[in-house]
Specification:
Number of helices: 18
Structural class: mainly alpha
Strand content: under 5%
Radius of gyration: 22 Å
Helix content: over 70%
Number of strands: 0
């Protein structure tokens, strides 16, 4: 079955549903995290970070390899889907067994026996993730984002409510572990029951698909693996070389801006990749879509990241309590780092869409090498210095990505600056208006609330006055849907 090009209107609709899905997931997880952060201390959160790094690493092999092939190919058959599904589940079974026996070694490396049971319990999610990822890839391919949204809106409240009850009744770390397990089980069950595989072909294994599937999936996995190392190596070495308490500060300082970044990244991967793939044979149209997508993302990300950076002190003091004050500078610097991520992510999707997997892989290798160099150069100066190094890294990666983009689709660094300057100046104006509020002598929660409300009103009014068409279109669709 040949999938038609994704229209501009369809991209906006997909963006709406994917944005709703991502926000729903992240908001519930954020609520659970905030409750747990008031109960669990930085040291225990450092241990949780190590568990998640281990599980997320294993999940790479079932979420970022074979299933991406289903999105890439133009003509998709039931044989392609079934072959990918069977192989993915078999890989997941093998990974769970490996993780079970490797857990004690990971615990010994970090000197904490608690990690053994935590890692083994979380490993069960790999099986359900392997199933969900294949169905999810098919749903994305067929632009069934609304169904994915509904699936999450059923799974999230159930798993989140159970986790919150457990946290409030003294289960601590295990509340987060349980939430992840229940959430992944529900996702798998619901997506199998609701996504109908309506394509040509038969339910059988096709050995002829093995070679192209593993070739594309392997290249994608390699790139994602390198990116994973770049993004998580700081957690691994902070936990080992410094201590779990500072890892807790660093991890939570990254987590809250990371919630926003995950929403934008999921949007770029699930919506823009299929859209870009539709124009992979026309560089001029692809460049136009690329520039518009970049502007839309930065009209969203700049005010959020810059606003969070200004509000970080009031946020930590009012929501997390003063035991997390050590995370404030990390939050502020991480917001600057994540300002570069939307462009890097969307550039990556362009390279995937035009089949330039090696270029994407080279970019991730460069990022990984620079990350390692900066980490070992700055780690002796503490977690704030490590956060500063990430800001420098982000700027260098934007320059690198613009250079490569210019070679393939003639998109230059100067054009990037032109595209992001309007949303940056608009966000800077908003930040300048809410910064003095932080100096008022009132409870931290009221300061935070006032900054968020005033900042949001100022930014939305500015968008309306300047008539930013892309954002106004998106807001009108959201209004109609609501």
């Amino acid at each position: 079955m040949e999938v038609k090009c994704v229209s501009g209107n369809q991209v906006v609709k997909n963006s709406f549903w994917k944005l709703c899905e991502s926000i729903g997931v992240q908001v519930i997880q954020l609520i659970v995290t905030l409750v747990l952060a008031r109960i669990i201390g930085p040291e225990e959160y450092g241990l949780i970070a190590l568990v998640l790094v281990s599980i997320n690493f294993v999940n790479l092999f079932v979420t970022s390899s074979l299933s991406t092939y289903l999105i890439y190919i133009t003509n998709i058959r039931k044989q392609d889907f079934f072959t990918c599904l069977v192989i993915n589940i078999l890989i997941a079974l093998l990974l769970v067994i490996v993780l079970y026996f490797v857990a004690p070694a990971i615990a010994d490396f970090y000197g904490s026996e608690k990690l053994v049971d935590l890692i083994r319990a979380m490993s069960i999610t790999v099986l359900f993730t392997s199933l969900s990822s294949v169905y999810n890839a098919y749903a994305v391919k067929m632009s069934q984002h609304k169904r994915l949204f509904i699936r999450n809106m059923i799974s999230i409240p159930i798993s989140g409510a159970i986790a919150l009850i457990m946290a409030l009744t003294g289960f601590g770390i295990w509340s987060l572990i349980t939430q992840q397990i229940i959430y992944n089980v529900l996702l798998a069950v619901i997506i199998v029951l609701t996504i109908k595989i309506d394509i040509d072909g038969s339910w059988s294994l096709d050995c002829k698909v093995f070679k192209p599937m593993f070739a594309y999936g392997g290249a994608t996995l390699l790139t994602t693996f390198i990116a994973f190392v770049s993004d998580n190596i700081n957690d691994l070495f902070i936990g080992k070389k410094i201590d779990a308490i500072n890892l807790g500060y660093y991890n939570r300082g990254n987590a809250f801006p990371g919630v926003i970044a995950n929403v934008l990244n999921n949007l770029a991967i699930s919506v823009f990749f299929p859209a870009f793939s539709s124009y992979k044979n026309d560089n001029s149209d692809l460049k136009v879509k690329f520039r518009k997508s970049t502007m839309v993302l930065y009209y969203v990300c700049f005010p959020i990241f810059m606003g969070l950076s200004v509000c970080s002190e009031a946020f930590v003091n009012s929501i997390l309590t003063d035991k997390w004050v050590g995370a404030i500078p990390v939050i502020q610097l991480t917001c600057l780092y994540y300002c570069a991520m939307p462009f890097l992510q969307i550039s990556s999707q362009v390279f995937l869409a035009i089949g330039k997997l090696k270029i994407r892989a080279v970019g991730e290798v460069v990022k990984m090498v620079l990350t390692i160099i900066f980490l070992f150069s700055f780690i002796d100066y503490g977690i704030t210095a490590i956060a500063v190094s990430r800001v420098i890294l982000a700027f260098l990666m934007v320059l690198f990505s613009c250079t490569i983009s210019y070679y393939y689709i003639r998109y230059s660094f100067i054009e990037f600056i032109k595209d992001v300057t309007p949303p940056f100046l608009l966000s800077l104006f908003m930040v300048a208006c809410i910064y003095p509020i932080g100096m008022l002598s009132m409870p931290a929660f009221l300061v935070l609330l006032l900054q968020v409300v005033v900042g949001g009103i100022i930014y939305l009014i500015s968008l309306r006055l300047l008539k930013v068409q892309e954002i106004l279109l998106l807001l009108s669709i959201i209004k109609k849907k609501v």
